[in-house]
Request: fold
Amino acid sequence: MYLKGSKLSLSKKRRQVNPWLLTFLLISIGALVYLNLVVVPMMDPPFVPTPTPTRDPQSFIEEADALAAEGKYLQAIEAYQGAINADPQNISNYLKISRLQIFTNQLVQAQVNAQNAILLDNNSSEAFALSGWAKGFQKEYLDGEADARRAIELDQNSGLGHAILAYILALRVEAGLQELDTLDLAIEESRTALALEPNLLEGHWARGYVLEITSNYEEAVSELDQAIAINPHIARLHMALGRNLINTGELDRSVFEFTKAYSLNPTDPTPNLFISRVYSMLGEWDKGIQYGSLALRDDPQDPNLYANLGTLYYRKGQYNQALTFLEVAVRGGTSEDGQVVEGIPLSYAVGVIELYSRYGLALARINRCSDAVNVANALLQNVADNPDGVYNAGEIIKICEQNLLTPPTATPEPTPTVVTGPTATPEP
Reply:
């Protein structure tokens, strides 16, 4: 059939195929098939990471337990966290890490981990006890007490629950938030804890604290000695023992305990602050200033540390140097590294009235009487019911009146004495 107008012709000559081209194509196709079926499967796939073996949770636990036994609590906490990451359903790890975080003053984290344990087991007496303790140390007294009471409800024979309830009640007493029977209940609960578990660390610790706030310092020392014999690696325990040793007059031993506390937790300024106060009690101003400076170095935002140094320089008679620190403590300011320091507002707290009195007296003694009289008036107006505040205000005004009659002669302050380094840290 012929199609009119078509460009196709059935009679058109067929084009010859190049045999060499055909051979090349067949060889290429064969090579590709070989590569896909044989070579490629034998090659390692590119950019695929080598799988990392998963660490057994038990290995983390064994490592953490060993570190904790050696008193290496920060490393132990890290290892327990590894165990939690590997096995988040094991309640024991949350309880262990929470306790160590309380020992090392990581209170927010301790509370979180205790709460995690409660989520896993709402009937865990130990979890509620630890949660309550962490809250109590954070001044969440009512919530902490509720958790401690829940711990006892779940296990009436829990020495830990009774010990922590005693501790929280004692904290309330010290904070001035107690009811009529709070102290009596704290005493009773501390006795119950040790009656149930005579060798319980927390029982001796709580009993020691109750005895401390009731001014039974020698008995408190005995209880704290027993707690430290059970576990010598807790900085808080050595701090508590040191405080009570001050009140029993064993000042050298108190310095040893504070030094031990610092060796266990070298980021905490409190041990050096207490060492500074001990040397102040002994009239060794230069050593007091040395340790006070170390404390301030560790926490340059704490106005109480400025107050401590200002007091030491004042007692040494270096009033200008004293004002450098007292002014920051009262008015606030900026630390050497640029951190903001909030001043301490005037209140009826004994230590605060002493701070303002000392600040005003230092101003008066260097004849900055305009500022000094303002401080005196603040004392008279705001703490008029406090006899010491009123007396010191009168002394400030009296010194300034004398300065008007006989202006003080400016004398250079003595050069600060260079003292030796801190006492060697005792062996753990």
